[in-house]
# Entry
Amino acid sequence: MTAARTLVISFVDALHTAGNAMRAAIPPLEQLAEMLALVRSHQVSRSGEIGDYLYKVHGAGCLFISQDGSEIDVDFAADGAEIFDFWRLRRYGHSLPEPLAPTEQEVRCAVESLKPLLAEVRPGWFSMAKINTSA
# Structure
């Protein structure tokens, strides 16, 4: 597996883990995007520490920093989906304890290789694809 593909898979796993930690710590939270409304209504601080993560809500998203210093930064789409771009993937790679620094083109190829697990929601922005479980 290439370093870029490892990076993308690791980012998605880290985002999933951070999301689970936030949902466990903030019971009304179902989607991470709800953090924006909770901050705006002063129910949750704009930044803080929850479990093993520091978090900082920003404009249209949130940055999570794990205990090892890894930075998982996402924005939220109108439907609440967690979305990320190449810059966020590469930033995550640079923040790892053993940094990964693939080029944007290598990351693009890795993301392409992971379709249909990842969906391009707008040019250069990706989310986990919604799986249709109805038969």
Remarks:
- The two ends are 33 Å apart (CA to CA).
- DSSP finds four helices and seven strands in the chain.
- Residues 3-25 form the longest helix (23 residues).
